[in-house]
Amino acid sequence: MTAENLDVVIILTPPEFHCVMACQAMDAGCDVLIEKPFTYSLAEADQVIAKQQETGRRFSVIHNELFKPTVTELKTRVMSGEIGKICSVRFFSGRRNQTFIPEPWYFQTYGGRVGETLPHALYQLIEYFDDLVVEYVRARKLGHCIIPDVAKSVDVKYDELFVEFSSPTSNAIASLSYSFNSNQDLSLVVAGTEGTLLAYLSGKIVKWSATPPSLKQLFTTLPEWQFAIKQKLAKFFPKNQGQKIRNSPHYRQISQFFKQIETQEPFTVTSEKAREVVRLWEEIVSIYAK
Fold it and tell me: Where in the numbering of this chain does the Gfo/Idh/MocA-like oxidoreductase N-terminal domain appear (predicted)?
């Protein structure tokens, strides 16, 4: 890497190589962007953080779903106090057909396929709580997942995962649910003392409240109608590949990563957030993948 005179390295290897490669890249004078899962252990995460401090280089981790407009809007509305004090945050994801997975290691990695995708839920939850305590973990196999041909020989031990957390400081709870046996829209439900927001990460937020909406509030739901119409029209007027890439959360995060390098602004996904995801990930996986 030193011979190539690189400025930035993006690490897309299986997670067991992330720690050593990130440290090598920073030793070579590069800033680093690392695909999730960041590392398998808190010890490895701390090695990367220590190397950052030693070399003066910087790193971030791909938490791409945070860069969806719906996720940004949801957090803004919650933090504005729209639904009062947060009582719970719940993450749901269900995708039975896993044939889009390109390599068998996604199923072979520590914690299995659910472990590989688990950071997506964790980084959403820590946007609302910084002190989550793991209270309950249950992983099981139902066996209805559609496995890609490249992983047919892999023993898939888990295709369902449910985890419950508490937040002592906020006096609130959180949970995550993954299923590879049924389909469910990727979604976040944030419940507060004054209402509940349901966010479909594909692009729509619905508010539930015990108070009947006023006429003015009804008009604020017009964007939801527009979203539904756009979804229907998109089937007849598909975007070209370039548009799809530029609209993807991966593209948004990578673009912002380079801009923040140029401006020396803090990365959106800080080393502290990346470390917190690893802390929770390691504890959860160590419970179900004994």
Answer: 4-63
Chain-wide mean pLDDT for the chain? 90
Lookup: tokens for 69: 């407009």
Neighbours of 181 (CB within 10 A): 17
Global model pTM greater than 0.90: no
Which segment of 77-86, 152-161, 218-227 scores lowest on mean pLDDT? 218-227
| Residue 106 domain flag | yes
148 within a domain of the structure (yes/no): yes
b/e per residue 12-31 (b: at least 16 CB within 10 A): eeebeebbebbbbbbebebb
Specify the number of domains making up the chain.
Answer: 1
CA distance 146 to 140: 16
CATH code for position 119: 3.30.360.10
Instruction: Note the pLDDT tens digit of each residue in 75-103.
Output: 999 999 999 999 999 999 999 999 999 99
Long-range contact list for 221-228, CB < 8 A, 24+ apart?
A: 227/203, 228/204
Distances (CA, A) of 187 to 38, 49, 270: 23, 31, 23
Please check whether residue 86 is in contact with residue 128, taking contact to mean a CB–CB distance below 8 angstroms: yes
The answer to whether residue 213 scores a pLDDT higher than 70 is no
